[in-house]
Amino acid sequence: MTPYEDLSESLRRGPRRWLVTGVAGFIGSHLLERLLALGQEVVGLDNFSTGHASNLEDVLARAGEQAQSRFRFVEGDIRNPQSCAAATADVDYVLHQAALGSVPRSIADPLGTHASNVDGFVNVLIAARAAGVRRVVYASSSSVYGDEASSPKQERRIGRPLSPYAASKLVDEIYADAFQRAYGLESVGLRYFNVFGPRQDPRGAYAAVIPRWTQSLFADDDLVMYGDGSTSRDFCFVANVVEANLLAACVPNLDNQARVFNVACAASTTLRQLFEAIRARVAVFHPPAATRWPRLEPFRTGDIPHSLADIGAARQHLGLVPRFGLERGLDETVEWYARHHGRAAGARSTFEEAS
To answer: Fewer CB within a 10 Å sphere, N or C end of the chain?
Structure first.
């Protein structure tokens, strides 16, 4: 059995109580789904600034009534200390996902990014310490590597942040380390690399590239690629991220220092390769997509040309083994968008055929 499979059995035998901040968001809703499937009690906190009630409705509808009874939702804002305190009471573990994401958003609104990502995070740490939680696992970002030129990225080597968003995530890591040293509050930071999967929002100016391209191909909308297509990223399916969070929360014998780990698949994909892979899958459901190609626009401020993770530390210390590569993840993601947002053009999803 893998370390995650061992952990799953342990959690089923001994349920615990979890707080998921940003529970109505993309990653938060997947954490909720997995925790309820494992028989856990979950408190969710969200203000719906970027999350959606429909994500919660989707998870709870499929979880069933018994699982629903193990979930308590607190509508509140992490910028409000009282909301954090109310959600954290009697919790064993905190999985902190609430944040304002996106490099371009942070450049347009640095104050809003700081208020949510730094002030809000400190509020969560204070509440977690007061509640006596066992450990806080928080979402950091590969953006903290900034202008560090080495590849693959290793946790001990970071450069200068290139955006307010990157700076906010780096400050979170500093605060987590300070709270562990000053108060003994255990924490683990996870530096996410380009997470994707079902329920990721394709709408809005700050949508991530995979949902945006997928939805645009289904809808015959305008397609944009920033740069010449050679930009590369380490894309990580959301199921891998869920497993990383649970392992980080429960793995024993971490040292007394706050730790941060890369969460990725250790595989490089250019934007050109990514688009071709998405287009081929969308065309199965919507044939006109097969001839589409995005319009090229200049690189955006704050973007880095290449990002690839070294996940050796996460393998060694957390037991993380990414089970979903890009191809399998795109299969599941495009099928989900075909059923929920796309036009299947007479084709039937294999998900539907199996149901």
So the answer is: C
**Burial profile 279-314: b = 16 or more Cβ within 10 angstroms, e = fewer:** bebbbbbbeebeebebeeeeeeebebeebbbbbebb
The single residue of 93, 145, 165, 337 carrying the catalytic annotation is 165
Rounded Cα–Cα distance for residues 36 and 309 (Å) = 30
Q: SS3 of 48, please?
A: coil
Q: What is the spatial distance between Cα 226 and Cα 233, in angstroms, rounded to a whole number?
A: 13
Residue boundaries of the structural domains of the chain: 3-194+237-265+308-324
The percent of residues above 70 in pLDDT, for the chain, comes to: 94
CA angle centred on 174, ends 168 and 176, rounded to 5°: 105
Nearest partner of 329 among 190, 200, 224, judged by Cα? 200
| 164/328 Cα distance (integer angstroms) | 33
User: 34-38, 89-93, 285-289, 341-345: lowest mean pLDDT where?
Assistant: 341-345
The span from the CA of 71 to the CA of 17, in Å, is: 10
* Element counts in the chain: helices (H) and strands (E): 15, 13
Residues in the chain: 355
Per-residue pLDDT reduced to its tens digit, 200-218:
988 866 678 999 999 999 9
Beta bridge partners of 141: 192
Supply the pLDDT for residue 1: 84
Helix (H) or strand (E) holding 182: helix 164-183
165 in active site: yes
The superfamily in CATH containing domain 3-194+237-265+308-324 is: NAD(P)-binding Rossmann-like Domain (3.40.50.720)
CA dist., res. 243 & res. 13, Å (int): 18
